[in-house]
Amino acid sequence: MGGGLRPRCRALFPGLQPRDAGREVRCRGAVSPLLAGPGCRGRAGLCRGRAEGVEDRPAGPPQARPVAGRGAATCAGRLSGAEIVMRALVLGASGGIGAALVARLQAQGAEVTGLSRSRDGLDLTRADTVADHAARLEGQAFDLILNTTGALVIDGHGPEKSMDAVDPQAMAAQFALNAIGPALAIRHFAPLLARDRRAVMASLSARVGSIGDNDLGGWVSYRAAKAAQNQIIRTAAIEYRRRNRHAILVALHPGTVETPLTAKYAARYPTIPPDRSAEALLAVIDGLTPEDTGSFWDWKGARVPW
Ligand SMILES: NC(=O)c1ccc[n+]([C@@H]2O[C@H](COP(=O)([O-])OP(=O)(O)OC[C@H]3O[C@@H](n4cnc5c(N)ncnc54)[C@H](OP(=O)(O)O)[C@@H]3O)[C@@H](O)[C@H]2O)c1
């Protein structure tokens, strides 16, 4: 980027949608013909600003003209390789799916903040750590917040095969992480969603948390905690319709993914690698509109019944 210069770009960026107006964009590639104000001159990476208008007209040759005042420039024409700068926050960045999402988002050019329990001390069962980490990010506006934390086995307690195996402490631990944890994540991090453009907060639930889809039984504590998470997301989404009309809050099922979480349990099921899950989840997220807030989706883009 050119020495802190931030030209105002009004451009037809390939791939930029009307809904992206207001997002920060970074131009890469063929911007060298741009000769308007300081900061919109030169090569890749020198043009960076906000998408203030997304014009629906044919691409012309790259051109730019100066705009009065403070060296701002208006860029018109097709700036090949320009990309939207997406600001993303991933909670649970150390996990199998979380790390894959971080890598995918970074590969797409997003600015990613990753937080985890093992590296940063963000423990979703400790409200103080959730509040502290959110407070450190105050003032940031994220396009995407992903909660990828969770566990199937906690303190040696795995999923129950029968109601006879229900243990109150193990069940409480499931609720603390897989239900109350996401509630705290929404409480403290959802206020960091951008308020002037589409912004998504998605939490990894699990299809086994679906009551409507439960034909197998078993795994009562994990299922029940994920079902509770689903209700929490639905409830928070209704509140957020009033608090931030651009916010979309959803629950996602990532598929049966080859991570430490499934290592002992997925043998009988077809699995997918974390990167495939991450790619698919980001595609599902990309297609969400504000009307979808409070819903539950699987990695293939199909609605999951509550
Ligand atoms: N893998 C699947 O097939 C599958 C299927 C359905 C749903 N899911 C859901 O997807 C999510 C991610 O699963 P995964 O497969 O990526 O699991 P994973 O590889 O075991 O990663 C779990 C992540 O959760 C974090 N975590 C665990 N306890 C935490 C706590 N108390 N506070 C904060 N973070 C905590 C871990 O952090 P540290 O390692 O830093 O401690 C790690 O980042 C989970 O919610 C899981 O239920 C997974």
The SS-based structural class is alpha/beta
* CATH fold description of the largest domain: Rossmann fold
Write down the overall geometry.
globular
Strand arrangement within the widest β-sheet reads: 7-6-8-9-10-11
CATH class descriptor name of the largest domain = Alpha Beta
- Main beta-sheet strand count, sense and barrel state: 6 strands, parallel
DSSP summary: helix tally:
6
List the ligand species: NADP nicotinamide-adenine-dinucleotide phosphate
- Radius of gyration, Cα only, in angstroms? 22 Å
Chart the SSEs and their pairings:
Layout: E1 24-26, E2 48-50, E3 63-66, E4 73-76, E5 83-84, E6 87-91, H1 96-107, E7 111-115, H2 117-120, H3 127-136, E8 144-147, H4 168-189, E9 199-204, H5 220-243, E10 247-253, H6 274-286, E11 295-298
Parallel strand pairs: 6-7, 6-8, 8-9, 9-10, 10-11
Antiparallel strand pairs: 1-2, 1-5, 3-4
Helix pairs in contact: 1-6, 3-4, 4-5
Bound molecules: NADP nicotinamide-adenine-dinucleotide phosphate.
The site of NADP nicotinamide-adenine-dinucleotide phosphate has 28 residues, from helix 1 and helix 2.
Task: Describe the model.
The protein has helices spanning 96-107, 117-120, 127-136, 168-189, 220-243, 274-286, and strands at residues 24-26, 48-50, 63-66, 73-76, 83-84, 87-91, 111-115, 144-147, 199-204, 247-253, 295-298. By secondary structure, the chain is of the alpha/beta class. The protein has two domains: 1-83, no CATH class; 87-298, NAD(P)-binding Rossmann-like Domain (Rossmann fold). Helix 1 crosses helix 6 (274-286), helix 3 (127-136) packs parallel to helix 4 and helix 4 (168-189) runs parallel beside helix 5. The site of NADP nicotinamide-adenine-dinucleotide phosphate has 28 residues, from helix 1 and helix 2.
